[in-house]
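ok trying again, last paste got cut off:
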Amino acid sequence: MKKSEAKERIEMLRKEIEEHNKRYYIDASPVISDFEFDLIMNELETLEKKYPEFSDGSSPTRLVGSDLTREFAQYDHKYPMLSLGNTYTEEELRDFDARIRKIHEDDFNYVCELKFDGASISIDYRNGKLFRALTRGDGVRGDDVTLNVKTIRSIPHSIAGSRVPPEFTVRGEILMPRESFNRINEDRAAEGLPPFANPRNSAAGTLKLLDPRIVASRGLECQIYLLLADDLPSDMHFDNLQAAGSWGFRVSENIRLCRNIGEVLDFIRHWDSG
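nice, full thing came through this time. structure:
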């Protein structure tokens, strides 16, 4: 590929990714799958590494997609809400494991769980009380959707239990159960309105509604996958999730502690075969 062709391709990919980010984070109406998006992003990353002369600090490869909107107040995340890396092959997982073992002399475990496709949420608690709930935003700041989150029954307003930090943050996914999604689309069809495309878009759109009463009627749920605090109950991620579950948060029942990459791959194969 000539440099002029590479530059043109890089610019085209950047524009395409920015459009898909807007559709995903702002409009809650993506037109491609996560896998297709990752392929486009990977191509752009490869070209930018091969042709560093076309690097740009504002490239989508340097930034986190944003769901910030003007309708909500915005606050900083105490802990940055970064994007998760993706992989789709066993070879890439084994390579990752090998890299970690080269820099980490002590033995370590993996924690495996299923990925839920919903709207990311970060919820802060102070002195055992729900203080503030923020969307992912741009990873540094998020939209304040506290009033809407308080309508979700699977998110506790007060925490009681052993070793609860005075201040902590939980990260999770806001989900719309299939039965709620079907019921809402039936109601929309009866009113002559177009149906929602899928539960993920419906959950993200519902979370940004300005009327908490409508949010409450949508039957959203929340699954927690991370506990953050300056003084955590345990040094082990798995144990911290178990602690969060004991405090009343909904943690995936399919979570599994794996001793090595082989057990990780067994976990994946089990769910792939299902």
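cool. Strands lie at 74-76, 110-112, 119-126, 129-135, 141-143, 167-175, 221-228, 256-258. The mean pLDDT is 90.
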